[in-house]
């Protein structure tokens, strides 16, 4: 390899390595990004994608021996501020805006507009508004971030990165929190950005996105650089092969499972302001999907079902008997498991070990003479680690050090260990690579075969369509209808979901404002 | 071979004590064959027990203790006895049963200070109606308990005297200043302020000045006769009570020294309180030179 | 449907006001109740007196609020008060003149800043919890104060110096004037300057703040220096009011200051707080202290009642929010 | 390649050990240094003496560790010591016999538990920050202690009762025996029982704990009751050692206890902590106190040095981790 920097490239990384205690996350990785191109970066969970990007952004220091050139000049960021000043911006994988600040404050955080020694609040509000309008993300800029939905926050993070005067923008799995319509909005933004001559590194597990957006794609596997291809020169199968190192069938084919008697029945479940009159039943061996746009109240329904945020009225029947679920422990007693939507907020105990994270819901099986046996717990965790191919040095590793996808697998393992009768999965494959996704699908079907009932909430239409026996569609907190597998198509469901889609008053006002100004 | 005397002290943040320490240091400096080590219990009796233990472990020749409170003397005496180390208690008089195991006591009875202070107030009132506010030190400290008790013993005998308020000034000038401000507002009838120590008395007189009261309006009295207080004597402060801190420190050290050498000493060594009025100001100021 | 929504909106509005100004309401209730019980409690004179008594730990509370908003804490402020008072007093002792007075105030604030600088460096660069850093500083500062003063109060009764604590401007006591000036300045810093914005960002999410290019270390350093300087200022004010510096001053003031901040709605988890509400918190404590003293409540009971009021106020506030 | 990996593994192993036992190393270094300086410092007798001195706030520190691991704190423990000591003393005052002794210890722990119950209820059900709940309790418990005792020490010099503090079993002082028993019990509770797991889960992520079916409220209640009961026990131990109960006992002990926990690596953010390391933390403070006293360091300087050692130890530990 020549050490001459290529003037075509905005970024060149040569032989970059990174070692964490016990893990070699990156091993002599090379990456070249051409100016103004959209460059997809792919690899399985834990391959080292985020780590590579964090090095670029000055969040991690790489091991000695590698070199990075940005715009032809050597580049060794010590802190994000260095990266920002050099012309880099990043949308991190786990966006967590300052919830206590307003949209505009977040937007201009670290680069506030000043008038004298004071901040020019109105200028920041105005400019934020302008930029959001331009990108087609209408929202009130004075809203506190804690009142902004995850999806909006994700779009906002992207808008923020765009608004930096950057030459290269990193987007680490920007679409995990988005539904289809928002994804298209994102595409628009990305294309707009590219038109300005800005290069983008785009990390995603979704092949569709990669082929739709990117000019080139690079793959890393187990911390090693595999190669870079022009997107037009490569097929899906070849790309998957590069990532997992073997041939794999991408399309998941569901086998049929015998469906038994009714296990769970939900009647007139309501939580004012969130959802109303939800009725459905799930049978043994059935996979029951719930579809809807973001904000339709799907998560709230399953949270109520699990007793996390209990409903105010309505009944839940299990095995034909009415049961009371006021708290999650009631649900757990009835062997209901629940993989929640928000990993950070309700999933992980970040500074605890993988084992501790797995065994928490039910400690009894690990007790010997009323004391928890570490050995027993470790063995069980290890078997789960193997079964789900969780990439972690040991099961004692602090879960915060795992890659996003592997964290998700641990959470799924947690509820599998409960051996649930009913398993609720809210966006279960968020951030999970294709290989693992297939494994999880297989697992879900396997559970169904064993006579368990599965409820799955997902924003990925294909996932729902290929897995579910029936799909309930929700809009604006109401049940629009339930479709059978045979009748369910993307169009039908989208239409149903949009049927109830009335934008909120605030959004309507903003929208009409844009129209009168002739922007939209 | 120098003698070592362990001297656990209750608080290094106490002004009056600091003169007592000076007395001890004075003795230490004048005698080359003795080394006196002081520790600070920070007003924590448990810490004082630790200090005693440590000195016993270090094998000192005698213990010179100003106890945090008199209840703590018992276990200290027991420990000293067991280790066969002579023990001198200074300043705070333990009860009889505790005194059995103590070799010598140097000091006075705290209650006396309260009595002397109260009697001076009675004299100054001269039969007039007296409405009294008492400012107490940190609740539970021996000096707070005994001095207040002495005050009340005297005041209860006079029908023209009424205790209007009792508050905790924590030995602290700033705290007393705040309390007296409030008290004078709530009870304009107050014409006597009796403080457990001089620092609080000074706080009281600053508050009185703020409230626009003159010397004639208020009788203020403290205990300790510290140099600061002596300065204010006659210009706001009406009386204070002197108890020779240096004398107690020096005297205590001397007795501990003798005991360490195996000499015989007198068990009770009284150092009396003295009332200080404006007339004696110069005389007492001289003691600090 | 529309009716419901507007009713909802109105409800939200009320609850928002309750959330924001609930403590102010509690303060007003407390004050009114005491005014009914005690003659002259609602007088100007008394209000200024409360403000004067509050001014010193109130100023500390403002500094502490900054620290708490970043997600930190400052336990050293009481000890810094002592150190600053001793240093300030030893400058003016035996001297006169306004030059020396200003110098003493400056020196007190400087000493406080140094303590704050150390707190901040240990926290920001040493990455050790501010609880421990400032706990250590608390012990050290008090030790130094005693060392400097030899454990004794230092006279500071020069006319010029005490005129700050004794004097008044248009009837407003000098200390209250200082309190108001500090409060306004700090309020602007917190709510209108990018420094304040960064303070909130760090408390909200330190990683995000870092990613956005906020210089977390420098900001923390500034915060602790500010808190230290304000504690130093409070020390100088107390010295001027008490005519002396004393190594025992400021004992446990840090707890009162923290209580004031938290009663004012500052979240110990960081990211939430404001100067005006911190003043409300300090006033609740001040009104309570004054009321209990003026009512002549037994000192033992005073402590018990004080504890109950503090918990009660925060509880009431939390309950209201929960219902809302 | 394989060689490199194994070298790496070994390095990891070292750093892991350093992370985990760094403070133990610091303790050993401190102890060795003092042993070189002071004759007889490394004797059994002295070690027991250190353990005895540490036992009381060490026990409190264990309770506080539970509270901190849930993400909370307990500032009331020092005041609870005072209250428990007064209650315990008034039971044995003027009496004799082991029955009364046991009753006094029981009563002290019961009183502590009640305080803890109140702390816990306010925190768990009132949802107000434990910092404020226990700060209020700190003031209240001390007030009640003074009320009960009328502000005076209460004699507790009965032979049976004081034999706990004075006596020893096979040469091990009674208080040390209690400390060890409490430590073992609490260590098992924390590391091996589901209660302990729940404590960690709450500190790790309270939402997740809820989702995993943990009864957060009850667990918090238990934690604060435990912390209160242990503070009560420490109060009884101190009473037996000091032959008296005293409302001034335990002043600022809560800070020593918290310092011990944090020096032992308990994270104030919650979710991290252990009983053995809390003991190491307490021992560092104890060894330091004893060493400074035996060296005859000037008390003013002692405070300064103490502050420096506490900060230094945590700093050293943090630095080591950072490098690793
Ligand atoms: N701070 C850390 N400490 C220790 N190990 C880490 C740390 N961060 C990442 N790792 C490890 O480095 C490897 C690469 O992680 P990284 O987050 O870069 O993966 P990724 O490719 O982004 O995966 P995903 O698609 O799941 O997000 C993983 O094995 C992970 O466990
Ligand atoms: N704290 C909050 N304040 C205001 N609105 C909120 C808050 N939390 C959530 N919302 C909004 O409530 C609505 C319902 O959210 P919910 O999570 O149930 O949606 P969902 O149908 O599950 O969609 P998804 O899970 O795909 O995001 C969303 O529009 C969300 O933006
Ligand atoms: Mg990643
Ligand atoms: Mg959802």
UniProtKB/TrEMBL annotation, chain A:
Q: Could you tell me what reaction this enzyme catalyses?
A: D-galactose(out) + ATP + H2O = D-galactose(in) + ADP + phosphate + H(+)
Per its UniProt record, what CDD domains does this chain match? ABC_Carb_Monos_I, ABC_Carb_Monos_II
Q: Name one GO molecular function term.
A: ATP binding
Listed SUPFAM superfamilies: P-loop containing nucleoside triphosphate hydrolases (SSF52540)
Pfam families registered for this protein in UniProt: ABC_tran
Any idea where this protein resides? Cell inner membrane
Record-annotated ABC transporter domain positions: 11-247, 252-501
PROSITE patterns tied to this protein: ABC_TRANSPORTER_1 (PS00211), ABC_TRANSPORTER_2 (PS50893)
UniProt cross-references to InterPro entries, sorted A to Z: AAA+_ATPase, ABC_carbohydrate_import_ATPase, ABC_transporter-like_ATP-bd, ABC_transporter-like_CS, P-loop_NTPase
**Where's it mainly located?**
membrane
Q: What is its EC number?
A: 7.5.2.11
Instruction: Name the domain of life this protein comes from.
Output: Bacteria
Q: Where does the record place the region Disordered?
A: 500-520
**In which family does this protein belong, per the annotation?**
Belongs to the ABC transporter superfamily.
Q: What is this protein called?
A: Ribose/galactose/methyl galactoside import ATP-binding protein
UniProtKB/TrEMBL annotation, chains C, D:
Membrane-spanning parts? 21-38, 50-69, 75-95, 102-122, 169-190, 223-243, 255-288, 300-318
InterPro entries, per the entry:
ABC_transp_permease
Indicate where this protein resides in the cell.
Cell inner membrane
Q: Does the keyword Transmembrane helix apply?
A: yes
Record flagged with keyword Membrane:
yes
> Its membrane topology, per UniProt?
Multi-pass membrane protein
What keywords is this UniProt entry annotated with? Cell membrane, Membrane, Transmembrane, Transmembrane helix
Q: Which domain of life is it from?
A: Bacteria
Per the record, the similarity remark reads: Belongs to the binding-protein-dependent transport system permease family. AraH/RbsC subfamily.
Protein name, entry field: ABC transporter permease
Q: Which organism is it from?
A: Marinomonas colpomeniae
């Amino acid at each position: 390899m020549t050490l001459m920097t290529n003037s075509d490239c905005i970024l060149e990384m040569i032989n970059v390595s990174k070692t964490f205690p016990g893990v070699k996350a990156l091993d002599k990785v090379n990456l070249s990004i051409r100016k103004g191109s959209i460059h997809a970066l792919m690899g399985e969970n834990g391959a080292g994608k985020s780590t590579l990007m964090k090095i670029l952004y000055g969040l991690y220091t790489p091991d000695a021996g590698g070199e990075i050139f940005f715009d032809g000049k050597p580049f060794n960021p010590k802190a994000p501020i260095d990266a920002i000043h050099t012309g880099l911006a990043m949308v991190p994988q786990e966006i967590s805006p300052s919830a206590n600040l307003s949209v505009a404050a977040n937007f201009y955080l670290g680069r506030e507009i000043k008038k004298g020694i004071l901040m020019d609040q109105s200028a920041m509000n105005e400019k934020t508004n302008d930029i959001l309008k331009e990108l087609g993300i209408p929202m009130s800029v004075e809203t506190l971030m804690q009142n902004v939905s995850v999806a909006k926050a994700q779009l906002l993070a992207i808008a923020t990165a765009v608004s930096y005067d950057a030459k290269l923008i990193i987007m680490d799995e920007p679409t995990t929190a988005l539904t289809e319509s928002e994804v298209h909005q994102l595409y628009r933004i990305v294309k707009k950005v590219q038109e300005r001559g800005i290069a983008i590194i785009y990390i995603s597990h979704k092949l569709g996105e990669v082929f739709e957006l990117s000019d080139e794609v690079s793959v890393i596997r187990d911390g090693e650089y595999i190669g870079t291809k022009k997107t037009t020169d490569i097929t899906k199968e070849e790309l998957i092969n590069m990532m997992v190192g073997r041939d794999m069938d991408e399309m998941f084919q569901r086998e049929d499972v015998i469906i038994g008697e009714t296990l769970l029945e939900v009647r007139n479940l309501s939580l004012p302001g969130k959802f109303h009159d939800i009725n459905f039943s799930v049978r043994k061996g059935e996979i029951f999907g719930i579809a809807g746009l973001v904000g339709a109240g799907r998560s709230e329904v399953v949270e109520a079902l699990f007793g996390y945020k209990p409903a105010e009225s309505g009944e839940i029947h299990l095995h034909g008997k009415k049961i009371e679920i006021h708290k999650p422990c009631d649900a757990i007693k009835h062997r209901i498991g629940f993989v929640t939507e928000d990993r950070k907020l309700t999933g992980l105990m970040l500074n605890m070990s993988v084992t501790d994270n797995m065994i928490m819901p039910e400690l009894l099986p690990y007790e010997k003479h009323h004391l928890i046996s570490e050995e027993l717990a470790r063995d069980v965790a290890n078997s789960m680690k193997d079964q789900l191919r969780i990439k972690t040095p040991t099961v004692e590793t602090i879960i915060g050090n795992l890659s996003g996808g592997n964290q998700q697998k641990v959470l799924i393992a947690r509820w599998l260990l409960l051996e649930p009768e009913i398993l609720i999965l809210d966006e279960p494959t968020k951030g999970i690579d294709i290989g693992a996704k297939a494994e999880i699908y297989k697992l879900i079907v396997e559970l169904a075969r064993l006579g368990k009932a599965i409820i799955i909430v997902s924003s990925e239409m294909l996932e729902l369509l290929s897995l579910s026996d029936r799909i309930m569609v929700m809009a604006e907190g109401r049940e629009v209808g339930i479709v059978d597998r045979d009748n369910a198509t993307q169009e039908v469901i989208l239409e149903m979901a949009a049927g109830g889609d009335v934008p909120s008053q605030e959004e309507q006002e903003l929208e009409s404002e844009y129209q009168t100004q002739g922007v939209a | 071979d120098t003698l070592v005397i362990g001297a656990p002290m209750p608080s290094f943040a106490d002004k009056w004590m600091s003169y007592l320490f000076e007395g001890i240091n004075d003795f230490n400096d004048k005698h080359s064959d003795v080394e006196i080590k002081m520790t600070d219990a920070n007003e924590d009796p448990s810490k004082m027990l630790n200090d005693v233990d440590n000195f016993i472990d270090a094998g000192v020749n005698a213990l010179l203790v100003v106890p945090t409170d008199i209840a703590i003397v018992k276990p200290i005496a027991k420990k000293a006895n067991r280790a066969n180390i002579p023990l001198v208690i200074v300043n705070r008089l333990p009860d009889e049963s505790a005194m059995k195991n103590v070799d010598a006591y140097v000091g006075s009875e705290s209650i006396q200070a309260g009595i002397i202070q109260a009697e001076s107030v009675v004299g100054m009132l001269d039969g007039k109606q007296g409405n009294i506010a008492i400012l107490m030190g940190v609740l539970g400290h021996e000096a707070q308990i005994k001095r207040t008790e002495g005050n009340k013993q005297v005041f209860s005998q006079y029908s023209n005297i009424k205790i209007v308020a009792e508050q905790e000034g924590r030995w602290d000038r700033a705290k007393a200043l705040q309390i007296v401000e409030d008290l004078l507002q709530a009870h304009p009838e107050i014409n006597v302020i009796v403080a457990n120590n001089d620092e609080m008395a000074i706080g009281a007189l600053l508050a009185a000045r703020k409230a626009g009261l003159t010397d004639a309006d208020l009788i203020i009295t403290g205990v300790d006769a510290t140099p600061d207080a002596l300065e204010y004597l006659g210009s706001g402060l009406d009386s204070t009570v002197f108890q020779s801190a240096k004398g107690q420190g020096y005297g205590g050290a001397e007795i501990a020294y003798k005991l360490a050498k195996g000499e015989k000493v007198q068990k009770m060594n009284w150092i009396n309180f003295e009332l200080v009025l404006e007339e004696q100001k110069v005389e007492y100021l001289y003691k600090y030179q | 449907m529309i009716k419901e929504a507007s009713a909802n909106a109105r409800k939200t509005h009320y609850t928002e006001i309750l959330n924001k100004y609930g403590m102010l309401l509690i303060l007003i209730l407390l004050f009114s109740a005491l005014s009914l019980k005690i003659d002259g409690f609602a007088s100007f004179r008394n209000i200024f007196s409360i403000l004067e008594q509050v001014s010193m730990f109130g100023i500390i509370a403002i500094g502490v609020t900054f620290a708490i908003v970043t997600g930190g804490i400052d336990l050293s402020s009481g000890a810094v008060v002592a150190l600053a008072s001793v240093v300030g007093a030893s400058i003016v002792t035996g001297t006169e003149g306004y030059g020396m007075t200003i110098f003493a105030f400056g020196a007190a604030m400087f000493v406080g800043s140094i303590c704050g600088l150390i707190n901040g460096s240990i926290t920001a660069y040493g990455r050790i919890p501010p609880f421990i850093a400032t706990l250590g500083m608390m012990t050290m500062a008090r030790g130094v104060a005693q060392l400097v003063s030899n454990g004794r109060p230092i006279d500071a009764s020069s006319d010029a110096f005490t005129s700050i604590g004794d004097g008044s401007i248009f009837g407003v006591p000098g200390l209250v004037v200082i309190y108001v000036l500090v409060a306004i300045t700090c309020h602007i810093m917190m709510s209108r300057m990018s420094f304040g914005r960064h303070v909130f960002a760090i408390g909200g999410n330190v990683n995000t703040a870092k990613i956005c290019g906020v210089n977390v270390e420098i900001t923390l350093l500034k915060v602790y220096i500010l808190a230290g300087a304000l504690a130093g200022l409070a020390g100088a004010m107390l010295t001027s009011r008490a005519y002396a510096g004393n190594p025992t001053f400021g004992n446990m003031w840090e707890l009162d200051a923290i209580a004031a901040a938290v009663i004012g709605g500052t979240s110990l988890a960081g990211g939430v707080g404001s100067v005006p509400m911190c003043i409300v918190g300090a006033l609740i404590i001040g009104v309570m202290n004054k009321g209990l003293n003026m009512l002549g409540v037994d000192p033992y009971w005073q402590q018990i009642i004080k504890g109950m009021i503090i918990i009660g106020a925060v509880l009431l506030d939390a309950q209201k929010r929960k219902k809302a």
